[in-house]
Amino acid sequence: MSDCLEVLVLAQYFPPDIGGASTRASNVVKGLIKKGCSVKVVTAFPHYPQGKIPKIYRGKALRFEEGGIIKLIRVWIPSLPHNTIVNRILLHFCFIVSTLFALPFIGKVDVIWAANPNLFSFFPAAIYSFLKGKPVVRNVDDLWPEVFYELGIVKSRPMRKMLDFLGKLSYAIPAAITPISPAYKKIIVEKYSIEAKKIHVIEVGVDEVNEKISYLKGNVKGNFIVMYSGILGVGYNFEDVLKAAGYLSEYEDIIFIIRGIGESEARIRHLINELQLKNVVLDTNLLPKPKLIELLSSADVFLLPMNPINFVEEGLPTKIFEYQAYGKPIICCSTGEPAKYIRQTESGLVVKPGDPKNLAKVILKLYEDRKLAFELGLNGWKYVSRNLTSERIGERMYDVFKSLRGCY
Q: What are the chain's domains?
């Protein structure tokens, strides 16, 4: 039997869409291709986060594309921004249906990976599994429906029971589960009584790692740049970051850059004005990749200001690995999995959330001790280079898929 696997990936979010879910799916696909797999991806028209569908897709039910050696089938999605929970759920339900438009064009598959969105992608995957007679592997980027409970979106007990039932179904039926963090595995086992042996923790990882790491420039040749880059969403506590910037306002060469887009943008702008911060730059531009690489490479320190809520603290955000790939130290505000990971890899310093004065002190520590900052950044770079490239992630995912061959 050939070792080449025919893999079908169902992913609402896939490049050029941005965000952790898109990055996760893309990295796995690239890693599987490097292992010699044939990969078909059923994904939505590009739409995240602003809901602006490019003209070439309008008026179509689906479109076939070649992404190098990846076969892409893009399916219809409504032109809605991801700015409300109602819009998001509507988009997810539409993807469940439109994913099935691709069914006549899939051909042979060996395994189906339900990549994203969490929970929702399982349902079309189950239909494909039934019709193709092949196993499903369920990915877990976030814990749904638990996210809805913690955000107060779902409060009714009957609704919770129904969602928990669907959650258990989505874990029990797949042949394997691939969460991105150990904490997710623990919850799936304990809450849903799923066998631990079918759960394989595989982190998000990174596609590219900087080939050359340079010593931190700091204020030797310019400003000392403290940067956050990513989604401006509820998972991150920007208030602490801005208060810390206020405490460090007397240091003219310490500059904070917060870049990204998301629902927290207006709140961040309000706080910058309210606190009269002259040392903070809010950048909401969508940059082409070369410009983004240039900007991220200019950072001296990266920030990971996690919000102290369970569904956030139990995951490992994509940006933690991307930060490491640039060889810069990370200051992590967390008491959960991100804090454990930073300590384990010795790639930064950890601060308890809700303590902006201490955050300011830790930033100042790295500002004053460039040798320590460089060593922490180098540790993270080495770890991600050796363990979490798309190639290594692909190898681990391939092993999971290959172990399921012939089980149906």
A: 6-206+389-403 (3.40.50.2000), 218-387 (3.40.50.2000)
Rounded Cα gap, residues 36 and 1, in angstroms: 14
| Greatest C-alpha distance within the chain | 67
pLDDT in tens, the chain (408 residues): 457 899 999 999 999 998 889 999 999 999 999 999 999 999 999 998 888 999 999 889 999 997 667 899 999 999 998 878 889 889 999 999 999 999 999 999 999 999 999 899 999 999 999 999 999 999 999 888 888 888 788 888 899 999 999 999 999 999 999 999 999 999 999 999 999 999 999 999 898 776 655 555 544 457 999 999 998 988 899 999 999 999 999 999 999 999 998 889 999 999 999 999 999 999 998 888 888 889 999 999 999 999 887 777 899 999 999 999 999 999 999 999 999 999 999 999 999 999 999 999 999 999 999 999 999 999 999 999 999 999 999 999 999 999 997 655
Cis, peptide link before residue 16, omega less than 30° from 0: yes
- The whole-model pTM stands at 0.89
Residues linked to residue 178 through DSSP beta bridges, in sequence order? 139
